[in-house]
Structures are given as C-alpha cells and as structure tokens.
Automatic annotation (TrEMBL):
It is an enzyme of class 2 (transferase). One of its GO terms (cellular component) is membrane. It comes from Prunus yedoensis var. nudiflora. PROSITE patterns: LRR, PROTEIN_KINASE_ATP, PROTEIN_KINASE_DOM, PROTEIN_KINASE_ST. Residues 171-442 form the Protein kinase domain. ATP binds at residue 199. It comes from the Eukaryota. The chain crosses the membrane at residues 95-115. It is found in: Membrane. This is non-specific serine/threonine protein kinase. It catalyses: L-threonyl-[protein] + ATP = O-phospho-L-threonyl-[protein] + ADP + H(+); L-seryl-[protein] + ATP = O-phospho-L-seryl-[protein] + ADP + H(+). GO terms for molecular function: ATP binding; protein serine/threonine kinase activity. Belongs to the protein kinase superfamily.
Length: 452
C-alpha cells in the first residue's frame, strides 16, 4: 500500500472525509476523488500539494488551500436536510459561536502583531535606510537562521537566500515540476536569467547540520555528464533544499507515457541514445565516484533530459541524507513499484545488481512504450516484465516492440537491446551483468549498426 502510485476513486458515491493518512503515500503521483459526496478539509501535506484541483471537484463539502479555501465553501452546499426550527436555532448558535471565536482570534493576532512591530521599530530605527532600499525586504526570523552553500559548478555565484525564495515564488504550487519519495521539486528562475531545480526534502534529515553539509558536499563531487549536477544546498528554517541543474525537457517518463494522444514522440535513435547515456551515468555511480553509490530508485521519472535529449540520472545518494546511518540495509522495501528487484522482498538490501534490474525495466519501457505496471482489471493483468518473458517464450519478440518504433531497418538493434534487457531482468541477481557490461553492449549496438 505504501508504494501505491495511482489511486482513482472518482464517481464512487463515497461519503465522509479524506483520511489524512493518505498524505503518507510518498509514491502517489496520480489521485482523484472527483464527483463523490466527500466533505471536510483536504490534507495539505506530502504529495497532496502537487495534485490539481480537478482531483477534488464535484464534492461540494471539500475545502483546503489546494482547492477551495475553507472560508469560501457555500453554506448551502454543506446544509443538511433538517427542516425543524430547533435545528435552525442550533445552526444560528453555532455560526454565532464560530463568528465570535474568529473575531476574538483576529483581535489577539492584531494585538500581538502591533506589539512586535512597535518593539521592532525601536530596535531598528537607527538602521541604514540605504540597505532597506537596495535589497528586497527580509523575511524575519527564518531568514536570519538560513544558510546557503553554493558549489564551484553553480551557475549563479551571487545567489542569496532571498533570491532563492523569490525565484520559486516562495514555493508556490504553480512552480512544482516534479514529485517523488524524497520531496517536491520546484522550478526556480534565478536573477541572472538561468533556471534551477530546487528539491525541497520531505521528512527529517536525521543529522546535525555539519553532518548534513558533509553528505551534500560528498554528493556534489559526483560529477559526470550523465548525472544531474548538484550546485548547492540551503537550510531555511526547518526546510532543507537541494539546488540542481535544470533539465529543459523534463523526465523520460513524460516523453514515454504522458505525451499528447498517448503516443510517444521519441524515435528509436533518441531512445537508444537515452539508454546509453543513462547506463554510463549509473556505471559512474557504481564504480567511478568515491564512495561508490547504489542509486536504489532507477526509473524513467528519475532520468531527466536536457535540451539535446541527453540523459541525466537524478535522485542518487539521497537516501543517506534522510537515513544517514543506512548501509544499504533497510527495514523498508526500497524503490518504486514495478522497478523493485524480486530479491529485495527477502533481503531488504539495496545492491548494484538491484540497480541493474531496475535499469532493465527502463530498457523494457523504452522498447515497449508501456509502463512497468499497467492500470488494468481482471485476473489476466500482468506486470510488464512477466508479460515480456511470456511473449519471448512464445517466440513473439516483434510484438513486444512499440509499434511506433518498429522498423525492419533497425529491427536487429531492437532485438539486440531486448536481449540485453532480458539479461538485466534475470530473476537471479548473480546471473545479471554488471552495469559496465551493459554499457559496453549498448555502445556496441550503436557502433556496429549505426543509429537510425
């Protein structure tokens, strides 16, 4: 249940409220309870911040900051069918009590605010007015305790904490460009005209500031053309923010599964190039950087594409930021449903060979254009890996390939990549190749046959 990615409960005649526990489903990327009879406040934590308002429409009693503000919900839409005068009197008394409480609360807030402002005025009256005119107004309290560290590869050396907050419109929902198990990702338009991707880590980091900075700096030293570059980090109040290079073309998941009319626009030569680049990035994590890094969550949404559709792996090494004493052994099943190696359910140990299995699922998505777990009903519904092996056992390999890329001119390439995919998806981890072998095979396919 915790690995659930899609939950569509629309048109189900549901009553009651949305359970707050659903906000703990960190892998949930698609959610809808539209056109039911739900009421109450919509959870405003976790993935719920990224769901569109259409996920909740058709429920007259729902409200929240991501839908209709609770103060704006029409009384008539919430009105129960109770015609008696005693019920009307009860409603009037309830409304009167609520109104009095709100007025008293506002009065108290105003009194506290005025008191703070008067004290601040006495304290700051001798400040330099030129300083106030030359920079944006400071965010009190939290900004004073903020810290920003930029690495040598940063595109904006003069960035400040205030600039960072303004560049995301103070983490406005409209700036969200991605979400995942580690938190939401926001687009930032930096003062120098460049863009960055800001990952707002969810959950407690479990470390002191010095340890956290050391882990982040270690990650920043993982530099490869097929990795998303970590340019800096920021602590702002209770938030931990990671600053990454911005990838203009988003994720591979979008181009394979979310394109217009459900048809991917990626031709085979581009898909092969993406597979080769992602494999090189993973090989660098496993062997090239120190210390070696097991990714743990290889999937198409963690493969980002720049303006030239070059592949860049994202979200590597983040598990140690949130679980600093993790030695690749965990009590939780790591990864994303559909990409998790079969042995993880027993060993609970993340390994390089486990990453290779997940990469094999990515290769299969590139070949088929299908998601690893299809949304379907019935006893005949199978996951993509099982379906592929079944088709292969029946000598129906050509039917596995996405019809939009199948072509006799590069049919040999497609079947060779399918062969590599099968080796990566071997149920026995000891029989799987290393990622270095996969790189060699994929590069050989491009060299021998030529890209189409």
């Amino acid at each position: 249940m915790e690995n659930l990615e899609t939950l569509d409960l629309s048109f189900n005649d549901l009553h009651g409220s949305i359970p707050p526990s659903l906000s703990k489903l960190t892998f949930l990327s698609k959610f809808s309870v539209a056109n039911n009879h739900l009421h109450g406040v919509i959870p405003n934590e976790g993935q719920f911040l990224s769901f569109p308002s259409s996920s909740f429409e058709g429920n007259a009693g729902l409200c929240g900051e991501i839908y209709i503000p609770c103060g704006d919900v029409s009384n008539t839409s919430l009105k129960p069918v109770m015609p008696s005068s005693s019920n009307n009197r009860f409603r009037r008394n309830s409304i009167l009590c609520v109104t009095i409480s709100i007025v008293v609360g506002i009065a108290l807030l105003l009194a506290v605010g005025l008191l703070k402002m008067s004290r601040r005025g006495v304290k700051d009256q001798n400040d330099d007015f030129d300083d106030d005119l030359s920079r944006p107004h400071r965010l009190s309290g939290a900004l004073a305790s903020s810290k920003l560290v930029l690495f040598q590869n940063s595109d904006c050396k003069e960035l400040t904490v205030t600039d960072l907050l303004k560049s995301t419109n103070n983490f406005n929902q409209a700036n969200i460009i991605g979400c995942g198990g580690y938190g939401l990702v926001y687009r930032a338009n930096l003062p120098n005209g460049t863009k960055a991707a800001i990952k707002r880590l969810s959950g407690e980091c479990g470390q002191m500031e010095r340890e956290f900075q050391a882990e982040v700096e270690a990650l920043s030293r993982a530099q490869h053309k097929n990795l998303v570059s970590l340019q800096g980090y920021c602590r702002h109040g209770n938030d931990r923010l990671l600053i990454y290079s911005y990838m203009e073309n988003g994720s591979l998941d979008y181009w394979l599964h979310e394109s217009v009319d459900g048809v991917s626009l990626l031709k085979w030569d581009v898909r092969l190039k993406i597979a080769q680049g992602a494999a090189r990035g993973l090989a660098y994590l496993h062997k090239g950087c120190q210390p070696n890094i097991v990714h743990r969550d290889i999937k198409t949404s963690n493969i980002l594409l720049d303006e030239k559709f070059e592949a860049h792996l994202a979200d590597f090494g983040l598990s140690r930021l949130l679980r600093p004493y993790d030695t690749h052994v965990t009590t939780d099943l790591v990864g994303t449903l559909g990409y998790i190696p079969p042995e993880y359910s027993q060993t609970l140990t993340a390994t390089c060979r486990g990453d290779v299995y997940s990469f094999g699922v990515v290769l299969l998505e590139l070949l088929t254009g299908r998601r690893p777990v299809e949304v379907c009903r019935g006893k005949n519904c199978r996951d993509l890996v099982s379906w592929m092996f079944q088709m292969k056992s029946e000598k129906r390999e050509e039917e596995i390939i996405d019809s939009s890329i199948w072509n006799k001119d590069h049919g040999k390439q497609l079947l060779e990549v399918l062969g590599v995919t099968c080796k990566c998806l071997d149920p026995n981890p000891r029989q799987r190749p290393s990622i270095e072998e996969v790189v060699s095979w994929l590069d050989g396919i491009g060299f021998e046959s030529g890209t189409q």
